[in-house]
């Protein structure tokens, strides 16, 4: 029997603590070279204070199975940019980008701060369900989700494309090569998108 998952907005501080625990297990520096290539990884390490402040602006989305948090998708409104100084160059870049011929800054968008599914629960549609819940929860407030993905993170790149994200810019910095991707909620969904 397939496990049953509940996907909701974060409801309490304990869930934020569980997000941090799952994040720790999936940081790039915590994984082997093989895991980095086949399983994907997260790059930025947050702290509880930053997550609490982000949550106060807009709650993140989490998935539970039998009461255990097994996946998360962090909501990072543009107003939260100061909470993760390591991401300031990303936000500065976003300020300069165009999307469909218009300045990206002219759209109502937020940043997917990070998305992660516990290794034991991958391949069961949770990535797509997290994003679908984001859309349900925030579609009256935002038009787009924007994020950046390491182009080396093949699993994440494929998953974002499957959901409906399109690459709007690529660049290289001192650490990696990045794809800036956006999901326009007004666009028709790709034929292979779930939900």
Number of helices: 6
Strand content: 25-35%
Give the overall average pLDDT.
88
> What is the radius of gyration?
16 Å
What is the 3D shape? globular
Helix content: 25-40%
For the secondary structure, the number of strands is 9
Count of folded domains: 1
Query: Biggest sheet, open or closed, and with what strands and sense?
Result: 7 strands, mixed
Could you say what the CATH topology is called? Aminopeptidase
CATH architecture: 3-Layer(aba) Sandwich
Give the low-confidence spans: 191-195
Distance between the termini: 21 Å
Strand arrangement across the biggest beta sheet: 1-2-3-6-7-9-8
CATH superfamily: Gcn5-related N-acetyltransferase (GNAT)
Order of helices and strands: EHHHEEHEEEHEHEE
Helix/strand-derived category reads alpha+beta
CATH top level assignment? Alpha Beta
List keywords for this structure.
195 residues, alpha+beta, Aminopeptidase, two-stranded antiparallel ribbon, 9 strands, 28% strand, disordered C terminus, acyltransferase activity, transferring groups other than amino-acyl groups, Acetyltransferase
How would you sum up this structure, described in words?
The chain has one domain: Gcn5-related N-acetyltransferase (GNAT) (Aminopeptidase, 3-Layer(aba) Sandwich). The protein contains 6 helices and 9 strands; from the N terminus they run βαααββαβββαβαββ. The chain has helices at 13-26, 33-39, 48-57, 88-96, 126-138, 154-163, and strands at residues 6-9, 61-65, 68-77, 98-99, 102-103, 109-117, 144-150, 166-172, 177-184. The radius of gyration is 16 Å and the shape is globular. The two termini are 21 Å apart. The relative contact order is 0.16.
